[in-house]
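Subject: design request, 306 residues
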């Protein structure tokens, strides 16, 4: 198999490539708003495999691919052979022989790795149980648009040590910021990942302490997709881990807060912050479109040259 480029975690791109991608996303956003024709990839097809629900990811990839002149195809395990036990490797060989790029949202991270290993076209991780790197592109774009470089800044994660938290750990490394993680005991991110990034990332179980002086505060749902049966238990364990006005009063005076959405008002984030007129959360969501168009462009061009 040739060295097809994939985007399974933020570590698949160098810090310099990520910086260029964010700048390109900002440029493509401006061009899109100015009504520029961005159809540089006519006839190209994106296969979108969704084993979990989605609003933002599906709409942004499908709209983005159309704006680039191509086509996006929605595939669900419910009505493809993926749901009837056809091996992921066989599916990868077949699907990648017919399309130009693949996006996968699924459970185990090994599924995107196994698919990518057999794919002749680029594979994008659109969320696994372990990572959500596309969301980080949008979050970093939002930060850069509002504040410039995030290098050297301090970021506070409040909540579960989940796929978003683990992508923030990778982002701390790739974008060079300090990350404090406020999570309840027993809900920490992967210990090997923490150990590998101990120079930039640390756990601070007390949310008000973790948020002190932070430039950016980030949260996410307490129970992720696939953990629905734990929702009630988690609501009790995480009750003190809410991003609200009191917590933000500990952060830097011009601190931003982000949430990948969907949000549960009154749980991980207060209704007051969600509905604040100056929140960047809606920009953050919109930037999924622009950041992923830059990602699609980068990977399609790389595979064309490869
Ligand atoms: N943030 C995010 O990935 O949203 P969706 O689950 O709606 O795609
Ligand atoms: N941590 C959440 C993110 C949703 C975009 C989940 O995996 O459900």
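Subject: RE: design request

Done. Sequence follows.
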């Amino acid at each position: 198999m040739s060295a097809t480029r994939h985007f399974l975690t933020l570590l698949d791109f160098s810090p310099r490539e990520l910086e260029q991608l964010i700048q390109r996303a900002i440029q493509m956003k401006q061009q899109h708003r100015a009504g520029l024709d961005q159809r540089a990839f006519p006839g190209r097809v994106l296969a979108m495999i969704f084993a979990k629900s989605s609003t933002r990811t599906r709409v942004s990839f499908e709209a983005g691919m159309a704006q680039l002149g191509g086509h996006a195809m929605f595939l669900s395990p419910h009505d493809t052979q993926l749901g009837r036990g056809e091996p992921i490797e066989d599916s990868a060989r077949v699907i990648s022989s017919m399309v130009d790029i693949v996006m996968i949202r699924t459970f185990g991270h090994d599924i995107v790795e196994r698919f990518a290993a057999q794919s002749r076209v680029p594979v994008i991780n659109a969320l696994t149980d372990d990572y959500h790197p596309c969301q980080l592109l949008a979050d970093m774009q939002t930060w850069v648009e509002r504040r410039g470089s995030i290098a050297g800044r301090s970021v506070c994660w409040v909540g579960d040590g989940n796929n978003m938290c683990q992508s923030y750990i990778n982002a701390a490394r790739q974008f060079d910021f300090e990350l404090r993680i406020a999570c309840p005991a027993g809900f920490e991110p992967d210990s090997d990942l923490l150990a590998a990034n101990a120079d930039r990332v640390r756990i601070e179980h007390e949310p008000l302490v973790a948020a002190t002086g932070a430039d950016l505060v980030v949260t996410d749902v307490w129970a992720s997709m696939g953990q629905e049966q734990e929702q009630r238990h988690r609501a009790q364990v995480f009750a003190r881990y809410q991003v609200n006005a009191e917590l933000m009063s500990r952060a830097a005076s011009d601190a931003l807060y982000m949430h990948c959405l969907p949000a549960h008002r009154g749980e991980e984030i207060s209704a007051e912050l969600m509905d604040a007129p100056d929140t960047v959360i809606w920009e953050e969501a919109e930037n999924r479109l622009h950041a992923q168009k830059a990602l699609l462009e980068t990977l399609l061009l790389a595979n064309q040259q490869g």
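The mean pLDDT is 97.
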